[in-house]
């Protein structure tokens, strides 16, 4: 143990420390003093778990080198000015709208200078565009003082005005924005986007990452030097929300990485009203970041200069190593969860202390006054100037008559909507030569087949495909490949992502061929169709639904001229991504005037595989559709596209490869973008009847919203006794049962391929054609599931109540499917008997 006499002994410093600066030996007293300065004040650094000596030394050097944290007088004045604006904005809102929720930053005002420092340093290091995701705490202040969104636009959100454009709008602290401006510190242009986010606090994380990745892709920024993401989190949500972990685990995956994200946790040491002792099991709220070896810098938000140093370090770390880094901004929350809340109910001791705590602006002003950096007059002048700016913006806001939600779009698609007829659909058929070329390339082994050993099973699959192409027929995999290939030929980027998408869950796709004797050697036929084609990305994701679907939605927001598809392994698995569907896809355009053309593949259908492998919950998507069951739109030539224009999303259950081909191409051919929810098949992937001729895909053909009966029943409609409508795979089961009983001339069977928007006009024509027939809806799902509750009132509207529509299918059930094969067949036979009885 060191004695007092040892304190002045000089010790040689080891190479593992940088506390000596240029000196390599120091007295023990000085060594201890310098170590305490570094590690026992306002910064706590977690980095020793990182298994790279280079990275650990990089951090040590920036923490331990003497004087490295010192700021110049000019830098200190800049921090004070930024802190004044951050504090002044919250004070102004509190003064003008005292009874409004705004989720203010009081207690964490240093967040604004912190973010601006990360942005300044990153811009200096070459970044040109920053995508930000954040919850609602401090969002308005970030929009005002980081993005420099015009203040009058912010203040109109408090005025209770109606919207001037489409959309139901959202509360002000959920909205996004997009700004291009000059960064005055670096004198470089910077683009800032804040992604809109619902109250599901961390939902925005994967979306911001997907948006960042897409922007990097379109800019050719393969190393993430020009585009980066900056994610803000609350402490309780960072620890508590599983999507944070899912997003973290995308950070190093080749097709999902954004080459490093700066995370800032506004750690006010409390969640909603839950004490940290009851809201997490780990010592720190940031411990989830340790799984990806991200350094974590805990810093006291009441020490502005330490915060600035940590932020500069974080930005440099990201630019140097292109890995994630976390800043844990340890602060407090001056008021309750929102401004109308009483925090003393649940945290009386904490809030007694908070009441006695001076705001950081006052503490820092006093420090700089003592140091002689600023005068009292300067401090007062900066505050008054900002208050005057706010007052002038409020006066301007009072003259506004409507809220313009188009001011709040986080990634505007410049030029996409301009000059287009919003009701003109471009053709989706393509010439036969194109289909043949794509089909042959897709069905061929790699060009260097002699050197590239493919699996024998793949050889057989390719041979079968080539035979189909020669016969001018496509199965499901070929129909999909031709949709992708023809879009790639037209310069449209296609991205397919999800679990097992490269091979296909049901081993039908095989878009990536693997060399059987050489590791990592692969061949992607769809990347080798044309010399000047658009890029095709097909990538197996991590075993995540919520995070990966969020990522792909973010990706789709960046550029409308791309087909972005997420495929669930089974449609049932999409349950864990329901938040994205509810909060972003079904309502995103209404809330945020934010369109996306993302497509969801959800394998759906009863094959006796039991619950969790049968139902994509078709009923949920239909229930969230915004078409009115009681309203039959006026019939006109543009009926179909007008419906698509007015709906919130499209839900379809195609049964032919040609219809899949057209509906995928239609996603790009539309003059607007809507999410497409596709119930995709399992057993139909190889069903001999689920095939299409090239004739259904060539020029002049299009997507069929319904496929009418084309058999004997259609030739003598007056003699038909029963008209059955159905959707999806059950068509083939019912058709087989009808043929088995020789009832083809008595029962007409029509497939509804697009469920929403509902094809009122075509259903009406079918009912009129078979005027003498009774009408029924047949489905394989249980009565309280599937499409029945959606279609029933719409049939009523279509037939003006003149026709009773009977239900054929399974009875109600709590589970989506039985796990017993015997029970499954019993149920199937029962409703097929019902379908074929006259």
From TrEMBL:
Q: Does the record bear Transit peptide in its keywords?
A: yes
Q: Which InterPro entries match?
A: 2oxoglutarate_DH_E1, DH_E1, KGD_C_sf, ODO-1/KGD_C, THDP-binding, Transketolase-like_Pyr-bd
Localisation: Mitochondrion
Q: Per the UniProt record, which EC number(s) apply here?
A: 1.2.4.2
Q: What Pfam families does this protein's entry cite?
A: E1_dh, OxoGdeHyase_C, Transket_pyr
Which residue range or ranges hold the Transketolase-like pyrimidine-binding domain? 474-687
Top-tier EC class: oxidoreductase
Task: Tell me which UniProt keywords the record has, alphabetically.
Answer: Glycolysis, Magnesium, Metal-binding, Mitochondrion, Oxidoreductase, Thiamine pyrophosphate, Transit peptide
Q: Does the keyword Magnesium apply?
A: yes
Q: Which SMART domains match?
A: Transket_pyr
A GO biological process of this protein is: glycolytic process
Looking up CDD domains in the UniProt record yields: TPP_E1_OGDC_like (cd02016)
Cofactor(s), by name: Mg(2+); thiamine diphosphate
Please give one Gene Ontology molecular function term for this protein: oxoglutarate dehydrogenase (succinyl-transferring) activity
Record-level GO cellular component terms: mitochondrion; oxoglutarate dehydrogenase complex
The entry assigns this protein to a family as follows: Belongs to the alpha-ketoglutarate dehydrogenase family.
Please give the name of this protein: oxoglutarate dehydrogenase (succinyl-transferring)
Originating organism? Acanthoscelides obtectus
């Amino acid at each position: 143990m060191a004695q007092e006499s040892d304190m002045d002994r000089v010790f040689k410093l080891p190479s593992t420390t940088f506390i000596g600066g240029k000196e390599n030996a120091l007295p023990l007293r000085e060594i201890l003093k310098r170590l305490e300065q570094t590690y026992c004040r306002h910064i706590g650094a977690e980095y020793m778990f990182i298994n790279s000596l280079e990275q650990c030394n990089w951090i040590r050097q920036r923490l331990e080198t003497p004087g490295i944290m010192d700021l110049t007088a000019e830098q200190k004045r800049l921090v004070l000015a930024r802190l004044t604006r951050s504090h002044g904005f919250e004070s102004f809102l509190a003064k003008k709208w005292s009874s409004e929720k705004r989720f203010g930053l009081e207690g964490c005002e240093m967040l604004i200078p912190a973010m601006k420092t990360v942005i300044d340093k990153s811009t200096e290091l070459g970044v040109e565009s920053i995508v930000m995701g954040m919850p609602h705490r401090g969002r308005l202040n970030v929009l005002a003082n980081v993005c420099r969104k015009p203040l009058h636009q912010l203040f109109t959100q408090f005025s209770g005005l109606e919207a001037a454009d489409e959309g139901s709008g959202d509360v002000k602290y959920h909205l996004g924005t997009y700004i291009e401006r000059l960064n005055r510190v670096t004198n470089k242009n910077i683009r800032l986007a804040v992604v809109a986010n619902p109250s599901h606090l961390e939902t925005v994380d994967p979306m911001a990452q997907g948006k960042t990745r897409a922007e990097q892709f379109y800019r050719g920024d393969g190393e993430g030097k020009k585009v980066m993401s900056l994610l803000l989190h609350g402490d309780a949500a960072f620890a508590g929300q599983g999507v944070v972990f899912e997003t973290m685990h995308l950070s190093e995956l080749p097709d999902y990485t954004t080459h490093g994200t700066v995370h800032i946790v506004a750690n006010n040491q409390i969640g909603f009203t839950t004490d940290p002792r009851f809201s997490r099991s780990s010592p720190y709220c940031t411990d989830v970041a340790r799984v990806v070896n991200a350094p974590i810098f805990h810093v006291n938000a009441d020490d502005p200069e330490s915060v600035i140093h940590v932020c500069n370090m974080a930005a440099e770390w990201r630019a140097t190593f292109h890995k994630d880094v976390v800043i844990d901004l340890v602060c407090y929350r001056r008021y309750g969860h929102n401004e109308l809340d009483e925090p003393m109910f649940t945290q009386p001791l904490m809030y007694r202390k908070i009441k006695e705590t001076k705001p950081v602006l006052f503490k820092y002003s006093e420090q700089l006054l003592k140091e002689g950096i600023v005068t009292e007059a300067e401090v007062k002048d900066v505050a008054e100037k900002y208050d005057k700016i706010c007052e002038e913006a409020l006066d301007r806001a009072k003259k506004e008559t409507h809220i313009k939600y188009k001011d709040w779009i986080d990634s505007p698609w410049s030029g996409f909507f301009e000059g287009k007829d919003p009701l003109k659909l471009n053709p989706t058929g393509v010439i036969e030569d194109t289909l043949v070329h794509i089909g042959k390339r897709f069905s061929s082994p790699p060009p260097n087949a002699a050197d590239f050993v493919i699996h024998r099973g793949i050889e057989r699959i390719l041979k079968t495909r080539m035979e189909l192409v020669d016969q001018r027929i496509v199965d499901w995999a070929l129909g999909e490949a031709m949709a992708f290939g023809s879009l790639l030929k037209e310069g449209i980027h296609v991205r397919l992502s999800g679990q097992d998408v490269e091979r296909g869950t049901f081993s039908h796709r095989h878009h990536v061929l693997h060399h059987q004797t050489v590791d990592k050697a692969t061949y992607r036929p769809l990347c080798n169709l044309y010399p000047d084609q658009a890029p095709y990305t097909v990538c197996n994701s991590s075993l995540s639904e919520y995070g990966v679907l969020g990522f792909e939605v973010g990706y789709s927001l960046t550029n409308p001229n791309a087909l972005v598809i997420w495929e669930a392994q089974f449609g049932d698995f999409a349950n864990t991504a329901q938040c994205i569907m509810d909060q972003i896809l079904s309502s995103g355009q209404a809330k945020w005037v934010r369109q996306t053309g993302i497509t969801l593949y959800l394998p759906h259908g009863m094959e006796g595989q039991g619950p969790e492998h049968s139902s994509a919950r078709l009923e949920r998507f239909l229930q969230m559709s915004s078409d009115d069951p009681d309203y039959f739109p006026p019939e006109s030539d543009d009926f179909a596209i007008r419906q698509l224009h007015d709906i919130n999303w499209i839900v379809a259950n195609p049964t032919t490869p040609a219809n899949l081909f057209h509906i995928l191409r239609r996603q790009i051919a539309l003059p607007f973008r809507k999410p497409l929810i596709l119930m995709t098949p399992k057993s139909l992937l190889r069903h001999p009847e689920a095939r299409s001729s090239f004739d259904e895909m060539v020029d002049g053909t299009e997507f069929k919203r319904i496929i009418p009966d084309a058999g004997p029943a259609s030739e003598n409609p007056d003699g038909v006794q029963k008209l059955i409508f159905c959707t999806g795979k059950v068509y083939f089961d019912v058709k087989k049962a009808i043929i088995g009983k020789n009832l083809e001339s008595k029962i007409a069977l029509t497939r509804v391929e697009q469920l929403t928007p509902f094809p009122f006009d075509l259903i009406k024509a079918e009912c009129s054609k078979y005027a003498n027939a009774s009408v029924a809806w047949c489905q394989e799902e249980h009565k309280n599931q599937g499409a029945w509750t959606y279609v029933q009132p719409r049939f009523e509207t279509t037939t003006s109540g003149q026709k009773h529509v009977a239900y054929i299918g399974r009875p109600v059930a709590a589970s989506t499917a039985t796990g017993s094969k015997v029970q499954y067949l019993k149920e199937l036979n029962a409703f097929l008997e019902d379908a074929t009885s006259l």
